[in-house]
Amino acid sequence: MNWSTMLAWSAALAVSLVGCSTRASQPVPTMQPTTTPIATGQTSQPPTTPITTGQTSQPPTTANAASLGHWQSSCRDIQIDSAKLKDDLAQHSPQLLHDSNIRANQAKRSLALAAIAPLNLCPIDPTYATELAGSLPGLWQTAGAEGFATIIDESFPSQITSTHPTDNSDCASCNITGTIEFEHPKWGRVRLETYAETPPPTQDLTKSGYRVVSTSDHSVLLNKRLDDSFFTLVVYPKEINGFLFIEYNPGRYDGVIVLRPTTEGMEDFGTDSYPRSYSGRFYDALLAPEPSGFKVVHRVNDCTPSCAQGTITKTSYVFDSTVNDFIPSKEP
Questions:
Q1: Contacts of 98 by beta carbon, 8 Å cutoff, 6+ apart
Q2: What is the pLDDT of residues 201-252, one digit of tens each?
Q3: CA dist., res. 311 & res. 305, Å (int)
Q4: Which of 97, 150, 187, 283 could form a disulfide with 279 if both were Cys (CB 3.0 to 4.6 A apart)?
Q5: Cis previous bond, 305, omega within 30
Q6: Beta strands 220-226; 232-235: pairing state
């Protein structure tokens, strides 16, 4: 190696060392998180799972039927009962208030039925449930109101009042006062209807009766005319443990006719005594629904020294399957 070559090699080495020293002395840039500017008035939100077009994000259904329906219906004030039902849902199942598909989902429908259960214990009124149902959309102003209105209408078919008993030529002025559908062991799907002249033409004359009609061909399978002096005659809007009930009033006290479907027709346990007498076995009596079933509370006035001053004794009757009849209960 000659002298000029050595000088050129040394100069190149020196330049290389200076460059390395310069780069080593510069600070290493640090990584900074990348942020997306947020417009004024907005807040940063955590990422969400994309929702398929046409679907809405709904909170999970956490309520169960046992938590709903613990309110007491006024049975006469639509504003009060509407608010109570809405509050019950808001506390235990708020998603139902805003769900427009309640009837299409069996689980949601079951919750809705549990929520309206207090209406089952209302005294019979041929129009109240229908009026309450029709008022919900306007009072609630929620997507679920229409569904609840329909479920109430379907749950209380006794509110139908415009049909005329076409087979009663001598009762052209009679209207249906109540109806309930049920499964009969002999006749299949049928409905029990009560009918009466409404309003009665005079205070002393009201034609009335009850009948069983097929829901498929509308044929009349049973028709029982009752005394002309019945002022009220309405079927109770709920079947309890296989029994059906008709509440009546011939002008002084309330009475209860108890019916049970059988393979032969309908059994009344002596509670329908017409035409022998309007005062049947459970005349001056009231139906008392209970969580496990029902009882009939019967009153007897000994009219001593007079009926106005007599002693009234109350006896509760319950059904005993061992004797296939109603017997006094053992409650105190």
A1: 142, 143, 144
A2: 555 556 788 889 888 888 888 888 776 556 678 888 889 999 999 988 877 7
A3: 9
A4: 283
A5: yes
A6: unpaired
Give the position of tokens 């009560």: 194
Residues 6+ apart with CB under 8 A from 146: 100, 136, 137
* Stated pTM of the model: 0.51
166 falls in which pLDDT band (50, 70, 90)? very low
Which residue shows structure tokens 């805003």?
98
Per the listing, tokens 């044929």 go with: 219
Neighbours of 74 (CB within 10 A): 13
Three-state SS at 20: helix
- Tokens in use for 327? 């017997």
How open is the CA angle 270-292-130, to the nearest 5 degrees? 80
Which residue stretches of 78-203 are H helix? Answer: 78-92, 106-115, 128-140, 145-155
Q: Which residues contact 182 (CB under 8 A, 6 or more apart)?
A: 189, 190, 191, 192, 239, 244, 261
Which tokens in the block code for residue 79? 């504003």
DSSP, collapsed to helix, strand or coil, labels residue 66 as helix
Q: DSSP assignment, residue 118?
A: G
Quote the DSSP letter at residue 200. -
